[in-house]
Each structure stands twice: as C-alpha cells, then as structure tokens.
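Action item from last meeting closed. Structure (270 res):
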C-alpha cells in the first residue's frame, strides 16, 4: 500500500486526508506535516493520523502531496531537496506553481504532478485537473487520479492549460457563491424572509447542478425547458442579457486566467 504524506494540513490538506480515510485507506498509511502543534494534535485526535516533520515525512512516504501556500514553497523545497529522489512522487496542490519549479529545486528525475483542485473537496465534490511534469509518466498520473477520486472528480489537462483551469474551476465555486448571494438578496428585495430565500435558492442550485450532471443535456436545452414564451423566465433572461451578465462572466474568468499567469511568472524557468 502506498504511503501518502500531506505537507501542509490546512483546509484542503485536511479534506484530502479525510477523503482518503473515507475511501478506505488506513490511517497507518497516511501522515501529515503541520507547523502548529495544537493544530497537529487536533488532527491526530480527529483522524488518528500521525504528524511528522517534513524530512521525516519525505523519507517515510511514497507520495508527497504539497498543500502549502505558494509563498511558503521555498523553505519547503529546501527541506525536501536532500531527502527525496526519483522513487518519490511529488504532487503539488499549490496554485500557480509550475512543475518546472519543483524539477529545478529537487534532485533530477523526481516525478512531479501539478494539480488544481477546488474547495468543494471539503464536501467530497472537488473538480481537480492534473498535469504531469517532465519525469511523470502514466503510472504517476494513475496514482494521483486514484487519490483525488476519493474527494471528487479528476480530469487530465496539459500544464499549459492550468491557468485556464484555475480561472474556470479553481475559482469557479466563488462565482456560484456570488450568484447565489445576489439571488438571495433579490428574494429579500421581493419581500421574502432571508431564511426562506436562502432555502429556495440553495436547493434550486443543488437541483440544477444535479440535472446538469445526471441528464447529460446541454445547459441551453435545460434552460429552454424552463423558458416559456412570454413567461417570467424569458423576461428575466432579457434583463440579464441587457445588463451584460454573460460578457461580464467571460471577462471575469479571463481576468482570473491572467492573474494566475502573473502568480506563476516569478517561478518560471530561468
């Protein structure tokens, strides 16, 4: 059984550990690193998974999942440089950091897989996109797919598309939360109690997502099924189009893509 170490047990790191346990992995095959002793003790008490320092975790595990903030990557790579080799698979969940950064800083031949997850990992419904580095082969991608399938769905993409993935699905949940927030406010404006408006919209969002996932129908087809001639829905859609909501979404996601590129530029190859 592969031993997995999660380096950085924040929300995403904890969600992955929890998902792996629920998928049937033994706590004995998992470990994590955490700078704060109180947080480490809390996670061990909750999940029964042992904590370790970075060098120990790197020497013990077959797979290292790097889940630290991008600004914390340099000291972590310094710790890893002397203790990992080509037999260790490094999986990066760090937004904006290219596989080339890890390949430059770690010993030659270390396989690296870059992942862009999103926060629905916290409820087992993540969308994660994975990309291999120069030394990662199909067998490494298969390992990463198996791990991430415990917390959602997985897609393979070329690393050149990771900035677009970051903008679309990495940041995507925030767009839906923003839309739901606005719709709840609209319900309040129309005279509904906040609790009622929230219940109506959240369940409508859940139901709409289920229809998209389960029917396989194009979103246009599903929208047209709700849109009666001269009815309420078409009047609302006319206003959305008149206010440029579609164009605003396109521009917003494009801006997120550009920002993702900017974040990765300091770590591009020399």
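Sequence:
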């Amino acid at each position: 059984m592969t031993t997995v170490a999660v380096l950085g047990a924040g929300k995403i790191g904890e969600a992955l550990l929890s998902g792996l346990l629920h998928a049937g992995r033994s706590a004995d095959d998992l470990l994590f690193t955490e700078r704060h002793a109180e947080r480490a003790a809390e996670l061990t008490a909750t999940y029964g998974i042992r904590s370790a320092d970075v060098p120990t975790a790197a020497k013990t595990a077959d797979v290292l999942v790097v889940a630290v903030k991008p600004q914390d990557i340099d000291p972590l790579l310094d710790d890893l440089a002397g203790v990992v080799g080509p037999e260790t698979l490094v999986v990066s969940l760090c937004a904006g950091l290219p596989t080339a950064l890890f390949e430059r800083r770690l010993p030659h031949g270390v396989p690296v897989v870059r992942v862009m997850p999103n926060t629905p990992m916290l409820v087992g419904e993540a969308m994660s996109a994975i990309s291999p580095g120069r030394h990662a082969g199909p067998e490494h991608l298969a390992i990463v797919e198996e791990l991430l399938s415990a917390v959602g769905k997985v897609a393979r993409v070329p690393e050149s598309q990771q900035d677009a993935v970051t903008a679309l699905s990495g940041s995507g949940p925030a767009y839906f939360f923003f839309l739901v927030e606005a719709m709840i406010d609209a319900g309040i404006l129309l005279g509904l109690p906040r609790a009622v408006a929230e219940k109506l919209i959240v369940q409508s969002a859940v139901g709409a997502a289920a229809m998209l996932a389960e029917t396989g129908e194009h979103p246009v087809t599903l929208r047209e099924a709700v849109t009666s001639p001269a009815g309420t829905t078409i009047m609302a859609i006319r206003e959305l189009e008149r206010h440029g909501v579609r164009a605003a979404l396109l521009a917003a996601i494009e801006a997120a893509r550009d920002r993702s590129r900017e974040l990765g530029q300091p770590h591009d190859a020399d």
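Note appended to the action item: The chain has twelve helices and eight strands.
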